[in-house]
Design a protein that fits this description.
By secondary structure, this protein is mainly alpha-helical. The protein is built from 13 helices and two strands, in the order H-H-E-E-H-H-H-H-H-H-H-H-H-H-H. Strand 1 and strand 2 form a beta hairpin. This is Transport permease protein.
C-alpha cells in the first residue's frame, strides 16, 4: 500500500462522512440537545446545593455544573460513536460497506479511515458543546481546551472503535434500540460522568463502584476531566488506549470475510 493511496482513501472516506453530516442538518442539534439539557436544566437545580471535589485529595470543591462538563463531553463522544455504529449497519444493509471494503487496500486500514473520520466529527461536536458551555461560565480554563484535545481524540477513537465492534453484531437497524438500552445508557450512568466514583464507594455501593471502575467510558471521562485542568491521568489514558486497540482489532477481525460477519452471512462481500 502506497502512502499516496492511503491518504487518498482517508480523504475520500472523511469527505463522505463530512458530506453526510452537512446534509443531515439536525444531527448537530440532536448531538448537543442531550448534554445541554443536563447542563442547563438538571445541573441548575444542584448549582448551589451539591458540590463535588474534582481531583484527589478531594479537598477542592466546585459547583456541580462545572463537575459534569467532562462527563457531558464524554456523552457527545459516546452518542456520536454509537451513531457511527448505526450508520455502519445502515451502510451494510444498503451495500455501501461492501463497495468500500472491496477497495484495493487493506480492510483494516479502510476501517481505521472510517474510525478517524467519525472521530473527527465527534471531536468537532464536543468543542461546539464546550463553546456553548463556556457561555454559562462553567469554570473550564481556556488552556484546558488545548490540553483536552489529544484526550478527546483518543476517547473518541475508543468509543468509535466500540461502535465498529457493535456494528459487527447488530444485524438490523431495528436492533439498535437494544444497543441503546444495554450499552449506551449503562456505560454513561455507571461512570463518573454525573457523580464521582469515590462517593459511590463512600456510600457503600461497592458493586456499582467496581463495575464503574472497569467501565472504559469512566476512564475516558476521568482523563478528560484531568486534561481540562492541565493535568494528566496516566492510568486512565493507558486504559483508553488499550481498549481502543482491543475494540479495533476485534472489529477488524469481525469484518474479516474469512471469520467474521461475511462468513456468517454465507456470501462473499456481505460486509
Amino acid at each position: 500500500m502506497k502512502l499516496s493511496h492511503a491518504l487518498l482513501a482517508l480523504q475520500a472516506v472523511t469527505s463522505r462522512e463530512v458530506a453526510k453530516f452537512v446534509r443531515q442538518g439536525g444531527r448537530l442539534a440532536s448531538a448537543l440537545v442531550r448534554p445541554l439539557l443536563w447542563l442547563v436544566v438538571f445541573a441548575a437545580g444542584f448549582q448551589n446545593v451539591f458540590g463535588v471535589s474534582i481531583i484527589p485529595p478531594y479537598d477542592t470543591y466546585i459547583p456541580y455544573q462545572t463537575y459534569i462538563v467532562p462527563g457531558l463531553l464524554g456523552m457527545v463522544l459516546l452518542f456520536n460513536g454509537m451513531q457511527s455504529s448505526l450508520a455502519m449497519v445502515y451502510d451494510r444493509e444498503m451495500g455501501v460497506m461492501r463497495l468500500l471494503l472491496t477497495a484495493p487496500l487493506p480492510r483494516a486500514y479502510l476501517l481505521f479511515a472510517k474510525l478517524l473520520a467519525g472521530t473527527l466529527l465527534s471531536v468537532l461536536q464536543a468543542y461546539v458543546f464546550l463553546a456553548i458551555a463556556a457561555l454559562f461560565d462553567v469554570g473550564v480554563p481556556w488552556s484546558g481546551w488545548l490540553y483536552a484535545l489529544p484526550v478527546l481524540v483518543l476517547s473518541g477513537m475508543m468509543l468509535g472503535a466500540l461502535g465498529l465492534l457493535l456494528s459487527v453484531h447488530v444485524k438490523q437497524l431495528e436492533n439498535f434500540a437494544g444497543t441503546m438500552n444495554f450499552v449506551i445508557f449503562p456505560m454513561f450512568f455507571v461512570s463518573p460522568a454525573l457523580y464521582p466514583l469515590w462517593k459511590l464507594e463512600e456510600s457503600g455501593a461497592s458493586v456499582i463502584h467496581f463495575i464503574a471502575s472497569w467501565n472504559p467510558f469512566s476512564h475516558a471521562v476521568e482523563a478528560t476531566r484531568f486534561a481540562l485542568y492541565g493535568q494528566w491521568a496516566p492510568q486512565s489514558l493507558a486504559i483508553v488506549v488499550g481498549c481502543l486497540a482491543v475494540f479495533f482489532l476485534l472489529a477488524a477481525w469481525g469484518y474479516d470475510p474469512q471469520r467474521g460477519i461475511v462468513k456468517r452471512a454465507g456470501k462473499p462481500g456481505g460486509a
